[in-house]
Design a protein that fits this description.
The chain is globular, with a radius of gyration of 20 Å. The relative contact order is 0.10. The chain is of the alpha/beta class and about 220 residues long. The strands form 2 sheets. It has a 7-stranded mixed β-sheet with strand order 1-2-4-6-8-10-11, with no helix packed on it. A 4-stranded parallel β-sheet has the order 3-5-7-9. The mean pLDDT is about 85. Bound molecules: 2-acetamido-2-deoxy-beta-D-glucopyranose (NAG) (4 copies). The site of one 2-acetamido-2-deoxy-beta-D-glucopyranose has 4 residues, from α2.
Length: about 220
Amino acid sequence: MAKLSLPLLLLVLLIFFTTSFSCPQHQKQALLQFKASLFNATSPFTSDKENKPIFFESWNSSSDCCDWHLVNCNSQFDSRNVIALDLRRLFGRLEPIVLASTILTPLFHIRSLMQLHLSSNQIQGELPGDGIANLTKLIFLDLIDNHFSGSIPSQIFNLRYLQYLYASYNSFNGNIPNEIGNKTKLQTLSLQHKNFFGKIPSSILNLKELEELDLSYNS
Ligand SMILES: *[C@@H]1O[C@H](CO)[C@@H](O)[C@H](O)[C@H]1NC(C)=O
Ligand SMILES: *[C@@H]1O[C@H](CO)[C@@H](O)[C@H](O)[C@H]1NC(C)=O
Ligand SMILES: *[C@@H]1O[C@H](CO)[C@@H](O)[C@H](O)[C@H]1NC(C)=O
Ligand SMILES: *[C@@H]1O[C@H](CO)[C@@H](O)[C@H](O)[C@H]1NC(C)=O
């Protein structure tokens, strides 16, 4: 067996630690891109620092994104992927700025995501279906209190692990799709407030795990 000299061993260990215990480079880049487009989108409205989205001071390229505010990684030994993003109420108590849903594009590159919270951000436009389709590990999706419009993307109903879907208080329109019945793992489905019209599909009866269903204030 070849012997490693002590300095070499230390170097190998150092490389191992620095590469294995921080978030993957491409996920960090995706998050930095999200931050950049968020700040770019808000810059015409906010000259003064007080008015910026909060909590992003820790998001810089020299630190591990698993240590950043609002970001959670798994604690597996071999890889630390980003598994949860808590992007609720990005402007805190300040008046939020209307954001285009394209701002979410970089987030759809983080395929290890299991929880995504986006509520109360005034995001408007369609929720990109092909982006959502990328997040195949998603268990929890919170879109409450934005201005998402168009139909709710059918790709959501292909997310096999999805258990919690909160989409109330948006401007989705159309029917509740028949494919809802395919989401047999769904435990909570919250679609209240002026989003949907038409019949409630009978396939909803296939949701054997369902514990909470809120369709109030629709047509
Ligand atoms: C920043 O915003 C402007 C418009 O407000 C847009 O034209 C430009 O492409 C944006 N840049 C980036 C890097 O997102
Ligand atoms: C980057 O963020 C870390 C915390 O995540 C902080 O300790 C460090 O000072 C920051 N570096 C710069 C250059 O802002
Ligand atoms: C899905 O993720 C891959 C890998 O990160 C990325 O290259 C691709 O652009 C993503 N697709 C969408 C629609 O965001
Ligand atoms: C839902 O399931 C039906 C069969 O039960 C299948 O034909 C359909 O493609 C599925 N739709 C989605 C969006 O998964």
